[in-house]
Amino acid sequence: MIVFDRVSKRYATGREALTNVSFSIHNGEMVFLTGRSGAGKSTVLKLIALLERPTRGSVVVNGKNTRALKPRHIAAYRRRIGVVFQDHKLLADRPVFDNVALPLAVAGAPLKEIDKRVRAALDQVGLLGRERALPLELSVGEQQRVGIARAVVSKPPLLIADEPTGNLDPDLSLEVMRLFRRFQDVGVTVVVATHDLHLVREFGQRVIVLEGGHLQGDAHDPLPSVVATR
After folding, report:
1. Which tens digit of pLDDT belongs to each residue from 27-75?
2. 5: helix, coil or strand?
3. Residues of the chain above pLDDT 90, percent
4. Which positions ≥6 away from 113 have C-beta within 8 Å?
5. Pairing state of beta strands 64-65 and 56-61?
6. Which of 154, 153, 146, 176 is nearest to 163 (CA)?
7. Which uninterrupted H or E stretch holds 119?
8. How far is Cα 230 from Cα 225, in angstroms, rounded to an integer?
9. Positive/negative CA dihedral, 84, 57, 72, 189
């Protein structure tokens, strides 16, 4: 599903966000990407989503080498990846239905299919019946669930999330992570960048640890010592 092979990323400012990073993530895995602020977690997700390309090395996602992908193929590539943001990035002046439908509308899906998919996605996150509500009428946790529904409405095989619980209290954070776990249970590959080690321990999934742009640990042990001591 995802292969990083000796990947380095240097930005135009001269900052090297990743240095010689290699790992692989298999289909259907749920993986936590951890590390301090500035460790390179967000850069890894940007490389997966093809918001950035590696300076050196290769990133292969769903069988596609992102360095070789032509611009005209990027939109189709991204439609196979659901992205969840920390700050939701919802359109405040559009109802929940329109926010969730956005990826399908951009892809030109038929209206009947959009209606079916949006309602199914909202049902998955427990918000069926709130289609006409505006984002500001929802709680913070509900807004995040709308963001998750939008990420999965196209039924992507891969879901990535960048600090999705950063603005949530512990109970809501667990609720969001349980949603991700349910998607993994039906075969979706899930990659979550987080610095919340309590959540990492709670869910006992594989952990990839970054520090200063370097890979520090890639553990299948649900409580690796390299994480627990940070």
Report:
1. 999 999 999 888 999 999 999 999 999 999 999 998 999 999 999 999 9
2. strand
3. 77
4. 104
5. antiparallel
6. 176
7. helix 111-124
8. 9
9. negative
Residue pair 34/41 in contact by the 8 Å Cβ criterion: yes
What pLDDT is recorded for position 220?
52
pTM, two decimals, is 0.89
CA distance 149 to 121: 5
Alpha carbon distance 103, 183 (integer Å): 18
pLDDT surpassing 90 at residue 199: no
SS3 7: strand
- The per-residue pLDDT for range 178-193, each reduced to its tens digit, is 999 999 999 999 999 9
Q: Report the alpha-carbon distance of residue 138 to residue 123 in Å, rounded.
A: 16
DSSP state of 207: E
Task: Mark residue 92 as left, alpha or beta (left: phi above 0; alpha: psi -120 to 50; beta: remaining).
Answer: alpha
Where do we find the tokens 């990947």? 7
- DSSP assignment of 158-178 equals EEEEESTTTTS-HHHHHHHHH
- For residue 198, the surrounding DSSP H or E stretch is helix 197-203
pLDDT at residue 91 is higher than 80: yes
- Dihedral angle computed from the Cα positions of residues 94, 96, 97 and 103, in that order, rounded to the nearest 10 degrees: 80
Q: Mind giving me the DSSP string for 26-94?
A: -TT-EEEEE-STTSSHHHHHHHHTTSS--SEEEEEETTEETTT--GGGHHHHHTTEEEE-TT----TTS
Look-up of token digits 């776990």: 181
